[in-house]
Design a protein that fits this description.
- Residues 417-673 form the EAL domain.
- Residues 273-406 form the GGDEF domain.
- The protein is of the alpha/beta class.
- 62% of the residues lie in helices and 13% in strands.
- Strand 2 (316-322) and strand 3 form a beta hairpin.
Length: 674
């Protein structure tokens, strides 16, 4: 049930908007229909009166004529025909008297009009017009003429009665009757003409008035239509302007958006009107968002958007490129003046007093500066250079301006990493990664379960790219949590598919690598639990591998993360163990199941006694603490024999088997070929 005072449903809102737009048209159409109906009724009734007046006048003249013939011939048939002719105007007289009575007698009026020779279908209109418009000047005058003309009716009726009573008509009587009839005739003619003229004038006036009224309504309808159409066009132009503005501006800060900014940069490169291009990225924006919420971050962006244009002046274009990144296109001054403007911009951002809920925030920005000279030939080149310069400003300590130089080797490396970031993001969006698995072979009876490590590759234009080429860029630019999520999600789904296809108890352990940022991400643990629940994979089958350096970097967080997942059945391996020997004393604080001995020691253990000693020490340490050991990078039979002699539990490397595609169907293939 809709609460009182709550918003209206969308269909009701649409209906109300439709009514608001359409009601004037509906009102005019209804008015036009009513006026047309009224006009038709009025014209029909007037036509009936004109027709009735014609019969009324004819009846009077016929009565005079037949009375005259009776005087001439004393033929009683003419007297009868006189009475028949006179009954027509007398019937109209009775009808008028019935309508003027109080109250009006409609039945008698109808009978009177019927005797007056009127058509039965016209009688309701005669009554309606008399009752409702007898006050009207023309109608009132016509009725008065009608009333005056009726005097002659009674005179003729009296004369006819006198003639009928005469037993023997004398010549002098006929002369007297003829004189009296001529007098009546002289009186009737002007009265009937007056009645006819009054009725005609009234009819013409009413018809003209109704025509004018109909034309006025039609003109009003046209005017309203034109007004509404003009209003619609104005509203449409307003909407088009608003949409155009929204397409080129940022909704939050009201600054030009990235698309608009890029068009201006491209135009400036074409005509050579710009001096420099700046990218400014806020350094501690995430802190503001995490501490004060997105409302605080939005308020900070709006404050900058309001303050910075005044600082930059009319010769600069400021735009919000997305997130906490701003772009500036400088049109005036030299390159040196542009650099001064960039530093002023950095200082202005740093001096912005930003307070949210009594909490003071320090704001700073890393700014990349690009000279727009002949070396910058395209929009893509300019934007890429500004992006690289902005990243370099952050890498060198933030809150600084870095000037792009195409000959800088460090910038070239950064450009390569940025390129990887774009490729990785595109691969995450398109699911362009693939999973491989490499067996981890047991070397002792204590390690009987099957074991494999799940690895990730990037499928790019038909090539498979190993993690060594893209993981550093993913780590540098914060993409590892996304990549770890992709690997976990697809690995668990594949394992679920293997279990469903195999129909046998699954004893294999699947090792999945996790990065340090993923372990430190508070949302990652709920994500893992949700994926276990969604896929139905038993946690006992999964061993998560984290590197020794990432675990030691945030020991408390790593220990809590490991404990939480081991609590639901997962295993853990400490990868690349031995790379930092000073961290041995941390081992007892990390509840892991496996130690993976760093491959650098394993590969050289046959040639270097120190490497062999390290492998022996790590293996002994693991066994003392109840942890199984895994040797990585086993590439020869001699190394494998040495590991067996030392007592290492598992071996992994190309000598044991190369990585193979990790898909659900492999389980069936392996079972059939066993």
């Amino acid at each position: 049930m809709q609460k009182r005072g709550g918003p209206l449903p969308s269909d009701k809102k649409s209906s109300l908007r439709l009514v608001a737009v359409a009601w004037p048209f509906i009102a005019i159409i209804v008015t036009q229909a009513i006026l047309a109906t009224f006009s038709l009724q009025m014209v029909t009734s007037l036509r009936s009166y004109v027709s009735g007046e014609s019969m009324w006048s004819k009846g009077q003249h016929d009565a005079i004529y037949f009375l005259s013939r009776y005087i001439d011939t004393t033929d009683s048939s003419y007297l009868e025909r006189h009475r028949q002719a006179l009954s027509v105007p007398l019937g109209d007289h009775d009808a008028r008297m019935a309508l003027e009575a109080n109250p009006p007698d409609h039945q008698m009026a109808a009978e009177g009009f019927l005797r007056g020779g009127n058509h039965p279908d016209d009688i309701p209109g005669l009554i309606w017009l008399f009752e409702n418009f007898s006050w009207f000047s023309y109608m009132s005058a016509a009725i008065e003429d009608w009333r005056n003309a009726e005097v002659t009716l009674f005179q003729m009726e009296a004369l006819a009665d006198e003639m009928a009573r005469a037993a023997l008509v004398q010549p002098w009587q006929r002369r007297e009757w003829a004189m009296r009839l001529d007098a009546i005739n002289d009186q009737v003619t002007p009265l009937t003409h007056a009645f006819s003229n009054s009725l005609g004038q009234g009819t013409r006036f009413v018809q003209t008035s109704l025509l004018i009224a109909n034309l006025a309504i039609a003109a009003l309808f046209v005017a309203l239509t034109l007004w509404r159409l003009n209003s619609f066009l104005r509203h449409r132009r307003s909407i088009e302007h608003e949409l155009s503005w929204q397409a080129t501006h940022d909704a939050l800060t009201k600054l030009p958006n990235r698309a608009s900014f890029e068009r201006e940069v491209e135009r400036a490169l074409a005509d050579g009107s710009a001096t420099a291009l700046l990218f400014a990225d806020l350094d501690q924006f995430k802190v503001v968002n995490d501490s004060g919420g997105h409302a605080a971050g939005d308020q900070l962006l709006c404050a900058l958007a309001e303050r910075l244009p005044g600082l930059l002046g009319p010769g600069a274009l400021l735009a919000r490129l997305g997130g906490d990144e701003f772009g500036v296109l400088l049109h005036t001054g030299s390159v040196d003046e542009g650099l001064i403007t960039a530093h002023q911009l950095r200082r202005a951002i740093g001096e912005l007093p930003f307070v949210w809920n009594d909490q003071h925030f320090t704001v700073s920005a890393s700014i990349g500066f690009v000279r727009l000279d002949r070396t910058v030939g395209s929009l893509a080149t300019a934007l890429r250079a500004a992006d690289i310069a902005c990243y370099m400003a952050k890498e060198k300590g933030r809150n600084r301006v870095h000037v792009y130089s195409p000959d800088d080797a460090e910038q070239a490396e950064m450009a390569g990493n940025i390129g990887w970031v774009q490729r990785l993001q595109r691969a995450l969006d398109r699911d362009s990664f693939v999973l491989y698995a490499q067996d981890i072979v047991p070397l002792s009876r204590k390690a009987e379960d099957e074991h494999c490590e799940i690895l990730v590759r990037l499928a790019d234009h038909g090539d498979l790219i190993g993690p060594g080429r893209f993981i550093p860029a993913a780590e540098r630019f914060g993409l590892m949590p996304q990549l770890d999520r992709w690997v976990v999600r697809h690995a668990l789904r594949t394992i679920a598919g293997r279990i469903a296809l195999d129909h046998l108890p699954h004893r294999r352990t699947y090792a999945i690598n996790l990065s340090g940022p993923a372990v430190g991400d508070e949302s990652f643990l709920p994500f893992l639990k949700a994926e276990f629940a969604a896929t139905g994979v038993p946690p006992q089958l999964i061993c998560f591998e984290i590197t020794e350096t990432s675990a030691v970097a945030n020991l408390e967080r790593a220990a809590a993360f490991i404990t939480a997942l081991r609590g639901i059945g997962c295993k853990f391996a400490l990868d690349d163990f031995g790379a930092g020997m000073s961290s041995f004393h941390y081992l007892k604080r990390l509840p892991v199941d496996y130690l993976k001995i760093d491959g650098g020691f394993v590969k050289g253990m046959q040639r270097d006694s120190t490497d062999r000693a390290v492998v022996e020490t790590i293996n002994h340490l693991g066994h003392v603490t109840g942890i199984k050991t895994v040797a990585e990078f086993v590439e020869t039979a001699d190394v494998l024999a040495a590991l067996e002699a030392i007592g290492v539990d598992y071996a992994q490397g190309y000598f044991m088997g190369i990585p193979k595609p990790f898909v659900a169907e492999v389980a069936v293939v392996e079972r059939l070929s066993a």
